[in-house]
Amino acid sequence: MTEKSPSPRLLDVDALRGFALCGIFVVNLVFFASGYPFHLVADPAHGSWLDHTAEFVTRLLFEMKFYLLFSFLFGYSFTLQLASAGRAGANFTARFLRRLGGLFVLGGLHAVLLFHGDILTTYALLGLVLLAVHRIRPRTALVTAGAIFTLMAAGLAAAALAGFDLVPDEGAALADGRASTDALDGGPGSVIGEHLRSLPVMAASLAVQGPLSLAAFLVGLAAGRREFLADGAREHAAALRRLELFGYPVGLAGALLFAIGGGTVNPAGVAVCILTAPLLAGAYAATLLRVFTTPRGGRLARALAPAGRMALSNYLAQSLLGVLIFTGAGLGLTGDTPPAAVPLVAAGIFAAQLELSRRWLARYRYGPAEWALRAVTNAERPRMRRTAPDPARDGGTARAGRD
Fold first, then answer.
1. To the nearest 5 percent, what fractions of the chain are helix, strand and coil?
2. Which among 82, 107, 361 has a CA at the least distance from the CA of 210?
3. 306 contact partners, CB below 8 Å, separation of at least 6
4. Whole-angstrom Cα distance, residue 87 to residue 82?
5. How do residues 238-292 score in pLDDT, each as one tens digit?
6. In this structure, how many other beta carbons lie within 10 angstroms of the beta carbon of residue 291?
7. Per-residue pLDDT tens over the stretch 363-385
8. pTM of the prediction?
9. Considering only CA atoms, which of 66, 289, 274, 59 is closest in space to residue 159?
């Protein structure tokens, strides 16, 4: 069967997605380097001031921020898919349900084989909600998102006031952390066994992450309906500047309280972060969008965009590399890598992914995982090899690239 003509997409969206992917990787790699963070305690083997500083900076600038930005872009891209399906006259509901099914299967395999912090299965389930409310008005979507953030924060604040402790027995948590580290340091069977044992804890954590991701979906849906990114940053310079002026001080203040409180171990700190992290994530995006309008920023956007265009492939590859570098299925560095080294490893891997993504998309239309998911979505085999120059590499305009 012949493939339908691909729809235009936004270079800025791809570049923001690449940026978000990098931030998510910095956080995720922490859980490959040691089994203790999964149990909300620090690895006692690494207690230098440099390690504590690295952990603090990660909580301050990365945790609970970048997955919100990525979720916002998921909601925004959903509107692009709707528009594309409308132009092509396709049965969007059936296609999107197949897409969510494929995403759920990939996420399940990812959670068991590679990383017990998978988000793909959550996205697949939340995608059903997004599909059900896709006709919602932008204003209603924003109000609903605000209500979700507020209710989640209020619930955690109430839990904190009631004395709820996420780590009631630190000694037991440290013992669990040691056991998880030893399991991750074992062979493939041991690693998979640890992932399976971690699934109930992962599911419980999604009780917080899931609603927040849905709220970010709805904000992205509203922005997509307004074609906010389609107009370019210059058209919204004043709004982006206001977001920076408000988002950075408020977002960083909340992030500071979150980091000082120990991150996700403190319900009160998490409650504050729920209300302020969207502002900081928005400020990050606003700054990048404004930077992308400059000559140097345009080059940055074109460097980030290929990684964002094949974000699913890169996300899975990051987890595979995490397994091969840290667990006993590879080099066996779990528990032996200080927290200060983790962001450096993440930066090195992501830099390599930027170049590899550029080279891959110079020859192919999709990343490997994107190709497979597209095949499931369209119930046909898409053409993989590129037959014409890639406009995302040559054009550099705000609407360069292909879906």
1. 75, 0, 25
2. 107
3. 14, 18, 354, 357, 358, 360, 361, 392, 393
4. 9
5. 899 999 999 999 999 999 999 999 998 999 999 999 999 999 999 999 999 999 9
6. 15
7. 999 999 999 999 999 989 999 99
8. 0.91
9. 274
